[in-house]
Design brief:
Blueprint: E1 8-13, E2 16-26, E3 31-36, E4 40-41, E5 52-56, E6 60-61, H1 68-73, E7 78-79, H2 88-92, H3 102-108, H4 112-120, H5 130-137, H6 155-170, H7 176-179, H8 183-197, H9 208-221, H10 232-245
Antiparallel strand pairs: 1-2, 1-6, 2-3, 3-5, 4-7
Helix pairs in contact: 3-8, 4-6, 4-8, 6-8, 8-9
Length: 258
């Protein structure tokens, strides 16, 4: 199982098994911290799609490859399959797909005026705006040059942030072309990251502008970017589903009659 860290396996919730992605071991190796696939449709309350939780080893199985008995013991729950999932581009171009969370609202609401100014007149928006400083340093147009840096924000988090922005700032879907991928939403990402790291003990000595600059540093140096968007969870699920369901000579007696 160690070789599958960051990959998808099946975990039991109630009577049924659902896809999760392994994050790291817990409890001296007898448990795993996992993230439930966002498309899970749970029969029993207690977990939420896309949430993380700790699961005992006995409630986790790899795909039962070449194991007929293992296949028959597993009752699969319902979930949205990888082939049915909207692409990253689909999700980001349709912010209404996923409503924003309370965390997003708490992070962005205090700066609604600044974000509105960035949309209407970015040169005149008040305060420290690291993404604007970066654009100016590269001699780039504040309205027409993409800001590709999103740090470690997930696709879902970015869609939620975009949903909040559209409802509270732009208020018209026709204006998406003016902010989606550009300075206004980039600063919203910075604000959200700032709000998140504020509760991290290692940043206790930072506040105000210094915290905002640190958030931009994280955003700027993080691996993901809008140029290389990869839906890691979906890709991982696709590999798991291929192993579980594919009929092939390699699968031999197990096949996919589940």
């Amino acid at each position: 199982m160690n070789s599958r860290v960051r990959r998808s396996v099946l975990a039991r919730h109630g009577e049924y098994w659902y896809p999760v992605r392994l994050i790291h071991r817990e409890g001296n190796g007898i448990q795993w911290c996992v993230r439930w696939w966002r498309g899970c449709e749970f029969e029993k309350i207690g977990e939420l799609p896309d949430d993380t939780s700790v699961v005992d080893n006995k409630d986790i199985v790899d795909s039962p490859w070449m194991d007929r008995a293992g296949h028959r013991l597993i009752r699969l729950g319902k979930w949205k399959h990888a082939c049915e999932v909207e692409t990253v581009e689909d999700m980001l171009m349709a912010p209404g797909l996923i409503p924003y969370t309370s965390d997003v609202n708490e992070a962005l609401s205090p700066s609604a005026g600044v974000l509105k100014s960035l949309l209407e007149a970015p040169d005149n928006a008040p305060g420290i705006i690291p993404a604007r400083t970066w654009l100016i340093s590269t001699k780039s147009n504040l309205k027409s040059i993409l800001v590709p840096y999103v740090g470690s924000l997930t696709v879902l988090e970015r869609v939620c942030i975009a949903n909040w922005f559209e409802l509270h700032i732009s208020q018209e879907w026709e204006l998406r072309k003016n902010w989606l991928g550009y300075l206004p939403i980039a600063h919203a990402h910075t604000l959200f990251i700032s709000s998140r790291i504020k509760s991290d003990a290692k940043f206790n000595d930072l506040s105000g502008d210094a915290l905002l600059q640190k958030a931009w540093e994280i955003q700027f140096t993080g691996v993901p970017s809008i140029w290389t968007d990869v839906d890691v969870d979906c890709d991982s699920l696709a590999r798991l589903e291929e192993e579980i369901f594919e009929i092939s000579i390699e699968a031999e007696i197990t096949e996919h009659y589940q």
